[in-house]
Specification:
With 102 residues, the protein is mainly α. It has one domain (2-99). The protein has helices at 2-10, 12-18, 20-30, 37-47, 53-62, 68-74, 76-99. The longest helix is centred in the last third of the chain and has 24 residues, at 76-99.
């Protein structure tokens, strides 16, 4: 729904084309949210050919959906360490693929 509204009212196509690096960072940082819904925005953008594979890959590496919720209820410290690792790993791999042209 966010993507559809973005296409209709916010000129999301122009923003994404002009600010691909910001979209990549947004994709990675939205992956911190322990829910799979925000990730669907980037899946839809990729499906429409608006973002490269590298951004989808980086988002997918950081995003673990609802899988983090049980660990989060058990230990917040370990959850944050795992998210930090995923974040750094997602940025490094995503940036590498982006610079390679994927």
């Amino acid at each position: 729904m966010v993507v559809e509204v973005g296409f209709k009212y916010w000129k999301i196509t122009e923003f994404v084309q002009r600010h691909m690096e910001w979209v990549g960072l947004l994709a990675v940082f939205m992956g911190i949210i322990p829910e799979s819904g925000p990730h669907m925005i980037f899946v839809m953008l990729y499906a429409r050919g608006m973002i490269p594979f590298s951004i989808l890959l980086a988002s997918s590496i950081v995003q673990d959906g609802h899988g983090m919720l049980p660990l989060l209820s058990y230990t917040v410290k370990d959850s944050m360490l795992i998210k930090l690792f995923n974040l750094v790993f997602g940025i490094v791999i995503g940036l590498t693929f982006y610079l390679l042209g994927y």
